Amino acid sequence: RQSLKIGMLPADGIGREVLPGAKAAILALGSSIPKTEFIDLLAGFEYFTKTGTALPDETVEILKNECDCALFGAVSSPSRKVTGYSSPIVALRKKMDLYANIRPVKSVSVNPEGKPGVDLVVIRENTECLYVKQETQTVGEHGKEARATRLITERASRRIGELAFKMALERPRKHLTVIHKSNVLSITDGLFRETVRAVPTLPGVDGKYDDVTVAEQLVDSAVYRLFREPEIYDVMVAPNLYGDILSDAAAALVGSLGLVPSVNAGDSFVMGEPVHGSAPDIAGQNIANPLAAIRSAAMMLRHIGYGDGANRIERAVDSVLREGKILTPDLGGKSKTSEVVDEVTKRI
Amino acid sequence: RQSLKIGMLPADGIGREVLPGAKAAILALGSSIPKTEFIDLLAGFEYFTKTGTALPDETVEILKNECDCALFGAVSSPSRKVTGYSSPIVALRKKMDLYANIRPVKSVSVNPEGKPGVDLVVIRENTECLYVKQETQTVGEHGKEARATRLITERASRRIGELAFKMALERPRKHLTVIHKSNVLSITDGLFRETVRAVPTLPGVDGKYDDVTVAEQLVDSAVYRLFREPEIYDVMVAPNLYGDILSDAAAALVGSLGLVPSVNAGDSFVMGEPVHGSAPDIAGQNIANPLAAIRSAAMMLRHIGYGDGANRIERAVDSVLREGKILTPDLGGKSKTSEVVDEVTKRI
Ligand SMILES: CC(C)[C@H](C(=O)O)[C@@H](O)C(=O)O
Ligand SMILES: CC(C)[C@H](C(=O)O)[C@@H](O)C(=O)O
Known about the structure:
The structure is a homodimer. The first copy, chain A, has 11 helices and 12 strands. Chain A is an alpha/beta fold. Chain A has 2 domains: about 1-100 and about 270-348, Isopropylmalate Dehydrogenase, CATH 3.40.718.10; about 115-255, Isopropylmalate Dehydrogenase (3-Layer(aba) Sandwich), CATH 3.40.718.10. Chain A has helices spanning about 15-25, 45-50, 55-65, 90-95, 155-170, 190-195, 220-230, 240-255, 290-305, 305-325, 335-345; strands spanning about 5-10, 35-40, 70-75, 100-105, 120-125, 135-140, 145-155, 175-180, 215-220, 235-240, 265, 270. In chain A, about 55% of the residues are buried. Helices cover about 35% and strands about 20% of the residues of chain A. In chain A, α1 (about 15-25) crosses α9 (about 290-305), α5 packs across α6 (about 190-195) and α10 packs across α11 (about 335-345). The interface between A and B is large, with 63 and 63 residues.
């Protein structure tokens, strides 16, 4: 690549305060990555309240036609039902076919509350399950009845399963836990479970995954055991909603959602996204933790081939955390978002 | 009542080892409750493997026609898809219209791992959501496609909401958190949220719930905050699957699933059930924690009007826990199931 175009979608709340930090970290890499252009793009709940659309077509078109990758901030949720509103991040994942949400969660020594020994990756299927948003409402004998469809396909389960085995193979422990609730959802979660477990028997795999050990767990007991003995997990693969819940649960173990990055990845595009939300309660105060967004930028860069740059950013973040002096309030510190960003960029 | 008939459904694994403890605790109440008869009833995965049915009609009929209440043990889940099998506990909840699953979770001082300050009740809707088990599978262009229906009705949401407000009002803090994911499921979870929130405006309520403060949370951040600041919760009300996950998560905070009781309650029947599963890994060793089952028996007795008996059982359990000498291995102890049962019954 001669140059790099990164779509920037800060969206709502602290999304707008942490994305500049990610940008600063990327810029701090200087000439070790191609000349980078940042393209500001519109999306979000606030944008919806102004225009009636949460994700303008133009944003999707620019992402598809002009950008090499993207960073998303966070989106606010309406506090009451709002007709016509639909989450732009859910829509983006589907429209860009970003079928995998990869969420690594790792303890840092800094936080006294964080449990030691957490080093796992949640691989969340990103396009289906209840997130297909096929909902209807009717009126029956006893009042309103609402129904949602939960879709699980062999195709989506297989590609997320393949990715999960691939990631497990790359990690030292090579362990994979398949999350489901097939004791209740024998057909949908049964399909997910069987399809993921069958990945090693696919044509062409040829024993490639022989070193991966596979376990499985019901989602309720997975959350229980995640809290009690997080060290048992390495790679976890889960349908969309379980992955959503599990990654938040895992984030709690390492001390703050403000530390946990992710990428939404497809075969031809990747979008970094901190796992935290728009946090309206602290928005506008310059105290949001920018590290999840900065780490998401690193993951995104690695995904498109700039592993060295990603490593430099991650090492800088780790050293700031290890030192434990310049931290935002969620980690018990007193520093501002901008001070943490400065400290990280200085070390890149 | 002249006499009390309690249906006993141990089902699988440690369910069979903990239910005798519950029976012993009830018997230890002596003449302070009516003469009690225990009726052993069949159900479970093992029963299914022998007979092809997991919940015989006879069991349901005896429960309906002869029993005043019941105790359920735990049910095993098949490790592979088994045609024709369907969870008997899910079926029982529906067939007996036990629409509320009430799961109190409270810290005890004994466990060093347990977070202090947990004192909450998860009120889980028990009859619908994805547990309606309406699943289909078709074959599309790209392979198998499975669909499940998630049903949320106004009626079920209202009755669980009414119960939640009632329980919140009875507790010192009078705080209620409504759990949903209406940022994605705006119609189904939207209906749940709006219906529960509207309970105080129902005809006849007349300001009864004015003292209850209501908050709400998305299920993913509810799990996150449950782990980080469990003290913010008092009563939580949730659709079926979220309630399943949340109650296991809360159990992790107090040190062991082996401590957490529940009742499945309807307008005319109640069935106690420890929150833990059948734990095949420790079954048959006489080391399962009987306290969740014993506490479930107490909750069941309170529900049908024997509050004094319930208090006596609960005080005995609490004193064994506080003393911390006779504990099963899940709590770091070395005692057998039967030793814990003896210790509790001695103190009743
Ligand atoms: C904002 C919301 C739609 C989203 C989700 O549920 O996927 C968020 O919780 C996340 O985890 O990225
Ligand atoms: C065994 C299973 C069907 C059940 C459930 O999901 O309800 C269990 O996890 C529970 O919480 O009682």
